[in-house]
Amino acid sequence: MGKVEDERAFFSEGWIEPPKTALKKAVATEKPHYHGHRDRLRERFVAGGPDALPDYELLELLLFRLIPRVDTKPIAKALIARFGSLAEVLGAPASLLEEVKGIGPTVATDLKVIAATAQRMARGEVRGREVLSNWTQLLDYCRSAMAFENREQFRILFLDKKNGLIADEVQQTGTVDHTPVYPREVVKRALELSASAVILVHNHPSGDPTPSRADIEMTKQIIDTAKPLGIAVHDHIIIGRKGNASMKGLLLI
């Protein structure tokens, strides 16, 4: 036999759903407390732009989409507490991001995609332009690409006769405090690309961009190797989380 319904309830005027079912529906339709917070954050962003929000709230806005049904405020604060700033969160390796509670492999990858997008945008501000007259954009790009790497990278910007960017290549990746650099390989690659000049860039994972004695000596070796072949070394920039240093600006080359 089928289920017997309570006929009195069925035929009674103004039939009322059983209280338990009504309670379940009320709970199901009630929005979590963080929905209003999300709306307010979006409104502040639209009204005041990104500068209206501190790092953790801007990160919250990103996480809203990546983790839609979770209160992301504690996760955003935990990320900032662990890494220090929004830039450092986006620059952190995926493996370290996943150590923060609430961040799984998918979200960590999504954050790295956002970081890569920011780097591409910064590179677009430099590519095809006269690099020396767009120095701020160049530094922004180098910082976005290298400041938060946990190993040293040696990057070379190859320029044409008008100081336009031909290519941007990472030639070597080393350890936390050393990258092997071979002056002949630098010059060889410049000749292959028909570059007239280069800008050398490397990062200090320690965060301190102060040039070391080894940095200065290596730069002078590259200059001495490149000069007889008509290739100029415009500068050697060192990038760190605490800032950047120009060897030319410091009168070291």
From TrEMBL:
**What residue ranges carry the coiled-coil annotation?**
none
Q: Which ranges carry the MPN domain?
A: 131-253
What keywords would UniProt list here?
Answer: Hydrolase, Metal-binding, Metalloprotease, Protease, Zinc
CDD domains in UniProt:
MPN_DUF2466 (cd08071)
**Family to which the UniProt record says this protein belongs:** Belongs to the UPF0758 family.
UniProt keyword Hydrolase present = yes
Superkingdom is: Bacteria
The record, for InterPro entries, names: MPN, RadC_JAB, RuvA_2-like, UPF0758, UPF0758_CS, UPF0758_N
- Care to name a GO molecular-function term for this sequence? metal ion binding
TM segment ranges: none
Do the record's keywords include Chaperone? no
Name the GO terms of the biological process aspect. Answer: proteolysis
Q: Which protein, by its recorded name, is this?
A: MPN domain-containing protein
A UniProt-annotated Pfam family: RadC
- Position of the signal peptide: none
